[in-house]
Design the sequence.
């Protein structure tokens, strides 16, 4: 009979062994020689923390009490592993690509990184897992007490042993769960220790089973007969309970923080899941293989009233097989320790990350982000969290008083944890799921679970029997175990049905009714479409890259010469021959960096992803590309604006050039005109003077006539020069107006006499002298010059047989208007606009002028503040000269 | 009109019988001076002062030589020359062009239009007479 002291020594030795293993594994992982640690086998074995002491001891007890129903606990995870491995793969992929640290982190991350949700899930997890931890403590204590009972010499104190067990487990979890802060939150040492524990507990249970079947019952045949004879073997299936518990076990397998820790967070390679999909169910099968035989034999062998939960331990003890009992004890011990350690680690991460750290950070008022000691703070808060969680479990155990009631706590905890399921699955497969939906669903499910299962299960003051019987305040439809009047159901099934269905319904309705934030949309897309855009488990590795395709793409971006140079350099660095390097991850990363210099990181990643990975373009990538495109669009917009500006400038230049050309042409035309007007009289002068010089025998008559021509042409030349100078002065604005006072009548008198004196043809002038008595203050000489010009033109060009000119004066709108209308045929409409231009002459008539007269008149009138224009439709040649009356008034 | 001045008369006969010049000029004083000069040289001088119908007048008058001003009312001397040269039998009629616009561009335009001789005003009488003699001699011989 092993003494308690030996047992404690064995336990300590076992723990030291685990420390050693975990320490060595951590060392190996740190030096990078831990490849054998990252095998599918270790991964599968680590999943075995699903099988806690509750399963190790409890399954036999469960079978002894309720027959085959215990199978559901194994059936749930098996179904998940076999038929839902693709969902797990998605979970693992999301967890890896988002670098989540816990299930609370995952839920929070999916729903727009909401910390409120993270706190909800954390609280739910702590509430659900604490009783579970207490259960483990109980099982260890119970197994100790079995040995203590058998060893009367020992002084066994249950309370202190629980305390020391709790403290020891907390130490282990703290030592290996918080040794370092890995970016991926992976703990190779712990996982390796757990894998060893998985083997220990399996071997222990199998050993007991083999001992029972072959050592006690006497082989397979006899044990089968016993089973058939026993009630346990009866195939009585309560479909409601079976379905509910199978479902719960499945949900818990996915949602339990410790399961999430080993399955997602500690996962090294999602391909390990493929192995686990068949290996883990096999493990569960082996674990459950001897449950029924042990239960049947135990019920037969052990005295009435002995605890069936401990048959695994008591049968070998009763039969005097101490070593087997010791092995069995170690198996149970490892089941409990592995669960407690991982659960404490997972929960501490959640508590620390989502509750402690936010509080600490806000208390620091933002100073923490610049100080370098956050890392220590995090580790410290994790350690404190682990200790707190263990303390919580310890006190829960102490307060609940242990006992058989704890056994059912496992399922109650499962039901609580399962409330996370709708938000988790919905988040993975439904982009429409929102933060509000998750929050409402969780709250509803959690509330119903507390009300219908947790509180009734605890009984006492928390849930008085009258409420259980008649509902709160006598509202019978609110009875915790018969909601809405649905009576007669198993309380467990009832609670699971209502809490999960209303949870899911609330989640869906609230999701549909609320709008996700942009971050939620983005995260939702990343989660739901994780396979479309994450680059596989290891970045660029494992993908088939075509160096040639990469070369072609690079040429397009960098240009042929630079692309060749880069590829050549990389190929040389790889030590290969030729110019195409192998598409190693290092090369691809270098290429991506090179390209991102030209096209931006997002685009570079997306482009390489297109060639290398086929479909490794994530929504984030696309969004980044869109951002870059937006920048490009902005640039192009700026360019467009610039080009529009250039177009405008070019148009202005063209217009200016056209204007200059026009001015230049006008200048040429003007010079041509001047040249013509000067040369024409000079031609006559030269020709006749040569004739007079060279010709002998000219008659006196001829001589006189030719001299007259020379004289006339000289005068014409002089007039022309006068006009040109006059016009030039007027146009340049250099004219000095000689302002004076007089009446319109006086000016007209002078003009008429000057213009008509010595005229070849007489012209009758009709005037209304009375109306002309208008005082003027202006340059009277210039005004007279204009009048003379107009009257002379009439005199020269009026083609009527008896030419006459009517001069009328009006006062129109503050202006003095003088009209000169003759009785000739007037100026043809097409020429009317031209008569005021320089050198304009209408018709073939040679009136001796150079065509500058009216141009000069126009300039003069502009100087005088009035105007001169042609009056069309007046029935003859008609000019109108108007002067502002303001001059007149100013004069008065 | 068939034939034309070149074909209608034997060369000798034409040279002796008709030394007719058609002067198209709108400045009466210049017209008078040239008429005086050429009449004394034994030319029969016809004049016209309008651009619009100048081509018809030339064709109708069948001169041995045309003296053409550029700035004419109705139609410019350049256009007249251009139109004239397109007519059958008028390609070799000597045309002496006189212009008061002495720009280089005008000379180029005139040569393109098929002018025989281009002179700017004011001219020396001797130059005009020499030009007329030369042009007439060339046309008579060849």
Sequence:
């Amino acid at each position: 009979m092993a003494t308690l002291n030996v047992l404690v020594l064995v336990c300590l030795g076992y723990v030291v062994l685990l420390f050693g293993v975990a320490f060595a594994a951590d060392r190996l992982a740190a030096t990078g020689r831990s490849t054998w640690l990252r095998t599918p086998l270790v991964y599968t074995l680590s999943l075995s923390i699903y099988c806690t002491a509750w399963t190790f001891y409890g399954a036999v007890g469960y079978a002894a009490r309720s027959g085959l129903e215990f199978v559901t606990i194994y059936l749930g995870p098996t179904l998940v592993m076999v038929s839902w491995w693709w969902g797990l793969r998605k979970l693992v992929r999301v967890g890896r690509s988002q670098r989540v640290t816990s299930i609370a982190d995952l839920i929070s991350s999916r729903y727009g990184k909401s910390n409120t949700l993270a706190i909800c899930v954390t609280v739910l997890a702590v509430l659900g897992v604490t009783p579970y931890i207490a259960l483990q403590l109980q099982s260890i204590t119970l197994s100790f007490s079995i040995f203590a009972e058998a060893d009367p010499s020992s002084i066994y104190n249950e309370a202190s042993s629980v305390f020391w067990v709790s403290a020891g487990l907390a130490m282990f979890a703290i030592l290996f769960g918080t040794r370092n802060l890995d970016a991926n939150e992976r703990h190779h040492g712990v996982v390796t220790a757990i894998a060893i524990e998985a083997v220990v507990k399996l071997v222990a249970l199998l050993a007991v089973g083999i001992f029972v079947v072959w050592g006690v019952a006497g082989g397979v045949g006899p044990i089968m007969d016993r089973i058939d004879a026993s009630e346990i073997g009866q195939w009585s299936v309560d479909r409601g309970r079976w379905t509910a518990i199978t479902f719960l076990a499945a949900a818990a397998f996915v949602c339990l923080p410790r399961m999430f820790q080993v399955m997602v967070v500690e996962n090294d390679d999602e391909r390990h899941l493929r192995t686990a999909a068949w290996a883990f169910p096999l493990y569960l099968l082996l674990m459950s293989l001897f449950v029924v035989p042990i239960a049947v034999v135990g019920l037969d062998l052990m005295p009435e009233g002995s605890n069936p939960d401990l048959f695994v331990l008591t049968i070998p003890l009763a039969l005097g097989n101490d070593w087997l009992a010791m092995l069995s004890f170690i198996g149970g011990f490892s089941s409990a320790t592995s669960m407690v350690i991982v659960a404490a680690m997972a929960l501490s991460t959640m508590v620390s990350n989502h509750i402690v750290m936010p509080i600490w950070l806000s208390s620091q008022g933002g100073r923490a982000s610049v100080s370098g000691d956050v890392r220590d703070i995090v580790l410290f808060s994790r350690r404190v969290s682990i200790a707190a969680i263990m303390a919580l479990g310890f006190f829960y155990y102490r307060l609940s008083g242990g006992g058989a009631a704890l056994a059912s706590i496992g399922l109650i905890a499962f039901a609580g944890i399962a409330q996370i399921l709708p938000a988790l699955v919905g988040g993975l497969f439904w982009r429409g799921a929102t933060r509000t939906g998750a929050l409402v669903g969780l709250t509803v499910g959690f509330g119903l679970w507390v009300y219908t299962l947790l509180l009734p299960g605890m009984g006492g003051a928390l849930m008085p029997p009258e409420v259980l019987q008649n509902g709160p305040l006598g509202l019978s439809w609110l009875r915790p175990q018969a909601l809405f009047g649905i009576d007669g159901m198993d309380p467990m099934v009832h609670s699971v049905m209502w809490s999960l269905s209303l949870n899911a319904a609330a989640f869906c309705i609230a999701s549909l009714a609320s709008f996700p934030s942009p971050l939620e949309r983005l995260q939702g897309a990343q989660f739901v479409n994780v396979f479309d855009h994450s680059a596989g488990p290891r970045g660029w590795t494992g993908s088939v890259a075509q160096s040639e395709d990469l070369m072609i793409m690079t040429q397009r971006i960098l240009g042929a010469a630079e692309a060749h140079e880069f590829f050549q350099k990389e190929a040389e660095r790889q030590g290969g021959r030729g110019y195409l390097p192998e598409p190693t991850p290092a090369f691809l990363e270098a290429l991506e960096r090179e390209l991102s210099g030209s096209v931006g990181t997002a685009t570079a990643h997306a482009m390489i992803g297109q060639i290398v990975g086929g479909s490794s373009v994530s929504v984030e990538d696309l969004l980044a590309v869109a951002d870059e495109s937006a920048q490009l669009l902005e640039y192009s917009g700026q360019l467009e604006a610039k080009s529009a500006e250039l177009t405008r400038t070019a148009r202005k230049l063209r217009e200016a050039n056209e204007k200059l050309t026009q001015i230049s042409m006008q200048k040429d035309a003007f010079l041509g005109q001047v040249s013509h007007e000067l040369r024409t009289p000079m031609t006559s002068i030269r020709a006749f003077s040569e004739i007079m010089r060279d010709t002998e025998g000219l008659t006196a008559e001829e001589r006189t006539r030719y001299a007259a021509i020379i004289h006339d042409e000289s005068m014409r030349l002089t007039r022309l020069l006068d006009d040109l100078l006059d016009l030039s002065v007027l146009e340049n604005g250099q004219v000095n107006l000689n302002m004076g006072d007089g009446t319109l009548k006086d000016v007209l008198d002078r003009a008429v006499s000057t213009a008509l004196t010595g005229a070849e043809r007489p012209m009758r002038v009709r005037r209304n002298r009375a109306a002309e008595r208008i005082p003027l203050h202006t340059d009277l000489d210039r005004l007279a010059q204009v009048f003379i010009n107009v009257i002379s033109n009439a005199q020269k060009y009026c083609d009527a047989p008896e030419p006459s000119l009517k001069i009328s004066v009006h006062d129109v709108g503050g202006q003095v208007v003088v009209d000169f209308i003759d009785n000739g045929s007037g100026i043809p409409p097409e020429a009317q606009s031209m008569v005021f231009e320089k050198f304009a002459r209408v018709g073939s008539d040679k009136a001796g002028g150079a065509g500058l007269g009216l141009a000069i008149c126009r300039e003069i009138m502009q100087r005088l503040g009035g105007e001169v224009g042609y009056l069309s439709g007046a029935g003859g040649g008609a000019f109108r000269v108007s002067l502002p009356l303001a001059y007149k008034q100013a004069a008065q | 009109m068939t034939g034309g001045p070149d074909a209608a008369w034997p060369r000798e006969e034409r040279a002796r019988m008709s030394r007719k010049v058609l002067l198209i000029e709108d400045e009466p004083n210049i017209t008078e001076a040239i008429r005086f000069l050429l009449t004394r040289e034994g030319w029969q001088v016809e004049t016209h002062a309008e651009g619009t119908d100048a081509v018809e007048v030339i064709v109708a008058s069948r001169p041995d030589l045309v003296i053409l001003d550029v700035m004419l009312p109705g139609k410019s001397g350049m256009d007249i020359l251009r139109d004239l040269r397109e007519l059958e039998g008028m390609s070799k009629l000597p045309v002496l062009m006189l212009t008061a616009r002495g720009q280089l561009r005008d000379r180029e335009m005139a040569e393109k239009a098929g002018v025989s001789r281009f002179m700017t005003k004011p001219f020396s009488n001797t130059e005009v007479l020499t030009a007329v003699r030369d042009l007439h001699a060339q046309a008579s011989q060849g």
Q: What stands out?
A: The beta strands of chain B are 20-24, 44-48, 65-69, 95-99, 117-120. Residues 8-137 of chain B form a domain with the Rossmann fold fold (CATH 3.40.50.2300). The longest strand of chain B covers residues 20-24. Confidence is low (pLDDT under 50) at residues 1-9 of chain B.
